[in-house]
Amino acid sequence: MDTQLKKGVLEMLVLHFLSKKNYYAYELNKALNGVIQTNESTSYAIFKKLIIKEYAEYYVEESQNGPSRKYYKITKDGFAELQKNKAEWDEFHKVINNLLNQ
C-alpha cells in the first residue's frame, strides 16, 4: 500500500484498536501490522502523536515475567475523533466508489 495512503489511516486504525481494549505497545504494533504493514518506528510515532493530541493516554503496569509494560488506552476525545474519522472515511469511500463505478 502507498505510504501516503497508509499515513492517512494509521491514526484511525490505532484509535479503532484502542476503542476495543487497552494494548501494550508491542501488542498494538502487532495488531496494526496484521492489517497494514508498518515499521515499529512509524507505529511508535503514531502512539506518541495520539498522546500529544490527547486522543490516547498510557499507564505502566508491572509484569510478573519481565519488564513493566506501557499500556495505551483511548480517551473521551479519542473516541470523538474516531467517530469523526469513521464518518469522513465512509463519505470518502462512498464518493470514490461512485466515481470508479461510473
From TrEMBL:
Residues 14-84 form the Transcription regulator PadR N-terminal domain. Gene3D superfamilies: Winged helix-like DNA-binding domain superfamily/Winged helix DNA-binding domain (1.10.10.10). This is PadR family transcriptional regulator. Pfam families: PadR. It comes from the Bacteria.
